[in-house]
Amino acid sequence: MMALSLFKDLPAVLLEVTMCLLIIACYLFGHGLCLRLIKQNPDNVNKELGAISGTLLGLLGLLLAFTFGMANARYDDRRKLIVAEANDISTVILRTDIYPDSIAHLLKEKLKTYVDARINFYAAGIDKEKVKNYFLEADSISKDIWHTAANYAKKDPITTKSSELIPALNAMMDITTIRREAGEANIPDSIMYFLLVLCCCSAFLLGYGNHTQVDWVMLAGFTIMLSITVLTIIDLDRPRSGMINMDSTNKYMIELRQMFNPLK
Q1: Residue 252, H or E segment
Q2: Fewest Cβ atoms closer than 10 Å to its Cβ: which of 53, 145, 220, 237?
Q3: Would you state the pLDDT for residue 2?
Q4: Full-model pTM
């Protein structure tokens, strides 16, 4: 059984609300501690705190940029792999036409089922059990297609047909594993936890550096913008759910069904 990941499995809205509350709580705690120390000793004001806060905020900005870049790069890789897989499958479908009609029709029937399984693999969303089942279903169908093509190649003395289809079929099968690995390659939890801790520490120091009343407008703006930025990073890293997904790219897989329209 896989361990629960805070940033991969929990709803994005829950993470957003929790982060907002944590930032506000850390800011108010720092502000309250500052006022308490000043009340005990009016001269107890750290004049270097501004430089420390600025350094920490700079580090936070750097980590946000690094994490966002990592999430965006992985999102782009996943998108390219979907397009590449659609191209690989379409190549296999087209090259079945070089076979006799009986074999070509059989291969296309199996490829049609394979395409449906690959479409369902994405449509399963965050349901890990369905994702696994559709992956295994497609894997089983692809092996059946491979055996069909291999058996015909053994009987056919002319190797031209097989030399065209087999490499394309091999590429179609290989990319499923690459795509699965890319889908499971998320930003390490250690980086996300460090980012969360850095957000809380920055909020604490900002509150501690405020010797006057709380500016709720500033606090709300800081909290909302920071939490939305982190939420966007999380959303990019979870393309199977959320507002940033692969639906527009997955249409290329769905369009493959049109290549089977002549089938009766």
Answers
A1: helix 247-254
A2: 220
A3: 43
A4: 0.82
- Residues whose CB is less than 8 angstroms from the CB of residue 109 and which lie 6 or more positions away in sequence, other chains included: 263
Tens-digit pLDDT profile for residues 132-142: 999 999 999 99
Instruction: Identify the three-state secondary structure at position 215.
Output: coil
Amino acid sitting at position 186: N
Q: Any residues with CB less than 8 A from the CB of 195 and at least 6 apart, and which?
A: 60, 63, 64, 67, 230
Tell me, rounded to whole angstroms, the distance of Cα 115 from its chain centroid. 22
Q: What angle do CA 75, 76, 82 make, to 5 degrees?
A: 95
Cβ atoms of residues 116 and 147 within 8 Å: no
pLDDT digits (tens, 9 = 90+) for 192-214: 899 999 999 999 988 888 878 88
Structure letter (DSSP) for residue 209: T
Block residue for tokens 């006057």: 212
- pLDDT given at position 24: 94
- The encoded tokens of residue 223 equal 């909290």
Amino acid identity for residue 66 in this structure: F
